[in-house]
Q: What sequence folds into this?
């Protein structure tokens, strides 16, 4: 549709429909489709957006089935949108003040949003767009994850590579330095009641011998939420521009790492207790190149991975890989190199 969708958000699963949000022909939009038959249940065309290579759209479904959405308008301002459970637009506002711009943001199921601003402040917004707090920081944070209990994890790119936890009022609880090494940024933060899991990745923008997908070194880490101590780390390799994606097992015993690997998906399984590698494999995606969008452990215990299998020869198609329960079948044929 005249250029179509740009910068789409992850799928937003509600009680009876699934929604997408993003830049459509220069305007932010939200559209929801009924689970039962795919008919449109909500269609909201919001304001014009700033066109750029990576349009900024971020959205979250709340516990009460509302959608809280962030997008960047044409004047560069961040807009905060609230759509209620019935699909009504409650507001589309620009809550940032003069001198503040959007660097990174995290959202939780209560509808709160934690924002890292360009003025070295940490700003928290409620679901109604009101400012809960704004606190100055003494580090240049680049990413943030917001837990459902209102506490937040922020990270500073290295060196030094720092991870910090703040309470629901914005007060620092602890700050922890990640292990030294060729690690530049923290990604894929996942919470449990007592710990967080994350990956520390290397950023290498120099291609090795013309290889556009050189192998990089990463580190999987478990960090205590109580005091920030690093409880264990596990090294792994991945391909440049194919950031790994973490998924926690439903029983709390496993953390799985997924990443694209040319025409395959790399899957590794680690024990949450001590970080020992329980197994791994490469799963082919049947094309020259695959690009993983998302991975989950479904309620039935299967692993489900969605890939864009685009290449410049065969065109574009999407593929879902479904694997058996990881405790039974996924690693039976070993790890391929």
A:
């Amino acid at each position: 549709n005249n250029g179509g969708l740009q910068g789409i958000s992850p799928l937003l699963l509600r009680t009876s429909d699934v929604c997408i949000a993003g830049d459509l022909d220069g305007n932010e939009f939200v559209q929801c489709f009924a689970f039962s038959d795919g008919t449109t249940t909500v269609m909201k065309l919001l304001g014009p957006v700033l066109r750029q290579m990576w349009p900024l759209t971020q959205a979250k479904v709340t516990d009460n089935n509302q959608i809280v959405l962030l997008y960047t308008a044409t004047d560069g301002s961040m807009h905060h949108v609230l759509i209620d459970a019935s699909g009504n637009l409650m507001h589309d506002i620009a809550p940032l003040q003069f001198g503040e711009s959007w660097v990174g943001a995290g959202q939780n199921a209560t509808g709160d949003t934690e924002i890292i601003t360009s003025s070295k402040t940490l700003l928290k917004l409620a679901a109604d767009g009101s400012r809960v707090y704004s606190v100055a920081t003494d580090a240049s944070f680049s990413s943030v994850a917001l837990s459902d209990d209102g506490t937040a994890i922020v990270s500073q790119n290295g060196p030094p590579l720092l991870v910090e936890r703040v309470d629901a009022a914005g007060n620092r609880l602890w700050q922890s330095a990640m292990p030294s090494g060729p690690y530049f940024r923290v990604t894929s933060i996942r919470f449990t009641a007592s710990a967080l899991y994350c990956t520390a990745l290397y950023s290498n923008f120099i291609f090795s011998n013309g290889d556009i997908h050189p192998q990089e070194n990463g580190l999987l880490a478990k960090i205590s939420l109580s005091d920030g101590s690093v409880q264990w780390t596990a090294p792994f390799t991945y391909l440049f521009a194919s950031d790994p994606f973490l998924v926690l097992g439903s029983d709390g015993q496993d953390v799985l790492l997924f990443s694209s690997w040319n025409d395959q998906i790399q899957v590794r399984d680690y024990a949450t207790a001590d970080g020992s590698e329980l197994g791994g494999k490469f799963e082919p995606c049947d094309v020259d190149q695959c690009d993983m969008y998302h991975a989950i452990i479904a309620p039935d215990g299967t692993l489900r991975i969605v890939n864009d299998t685009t290449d410049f020869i065969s065109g574009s198609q999407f593929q879902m890989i479904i694997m058996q329960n990881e405790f039974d079948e996924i690693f039976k044929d070993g790890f391929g190199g």
Notes: The mean pLDDT is 83. The first strand starts at residue 5 and ends at 6.
